[in-house]
Predict the structure.
Amino acid sequence: MRKLLAAALCLAATVTATGCGASVESTADTRSAEAVTLTSCGQKVTYKTVPKRVVTNDVGITELMFALGLENRMAGFAMPDDKGDLTDVPWKDGYQKVTWLSKDQLTKENVLDARADLVLAGWNYGFRDDSGFTPDALKKLGIPSYVLTESCRNGRTDTSRGIMPPLDALYTDLTNLGKLFGVEKRAATLIADFKKHIATVHSEAPAKSPTVFLYDSGQDAPFTSGRYAAPDQIISEAGGVNVMHDVNDSWTTVGWETVVKRDPDVIVICDYGDVSAEQKKKFLLSYAPLRNVSAVKHRRIFVLDYVDLVESPRNPSAIARLGAYLRTVAAGQQAAQ
């Protein structure tokens, strides 16, 4: 994946623990060992003690902990090594300090080996029924878990996810983790800073919002973002409209015929995995059914990294970068009229 710009990341992380010269509250603010009850995916969950050996799954979830300055509370993380260059991120010190347990996903075995006292993951971000790695299975082993709010199942189908707007999910998790670890002030400052930067970008949005399709992967049928995955609100706060906003799911598959019918002005590529962003772009530009789609005709394709587009503390930076691009697109459309 492309190397991320450190300056853009610092914009979204000015109150994080490392990387941008920001000061961090003393770890003395961590709470005493009294029970804390949080609401996770609509259910009350009580944590009897402050976790000291947290394991996380995937890059966005791991960086929630780093952004709160909690790497000293971590026993390790699992993350494929195709999720981006980590050398310039604001939390590179966290990655250097915390053990990389697996370059795949968490398993019961590596969680037990790490002597974890909390698993922080999400449905399709580590938790999965097919392998039996679920919060219920961990509970039977005596290991508490916390489910990423973006991934909460919503009951519409067996697998559909998302119970609130994506940025609200981010703020919910930061607030909950702040309460659990006794860093409420740090979490509140981080959230306030994110909201301030996002509001600035949104205030500069073009009068006429370009329509946007998020392309993750897939050639026979595209994998994309409905209204409950992070790209939906990243797009809207940046000044665009997600053409799949009416899909009541987070990450999901749609048909190409729907994309053609909705004729997006812009396509945003999610960059990760074995298929590069350039390969994805080449496919989109050469795929015959898309030849009359506005984004393809005018080659309006923008790339964001995977971690920009899942719930993570990098979301505000992604909004700023996409916002600048959409303003350019809108200006070009207006000039062409």
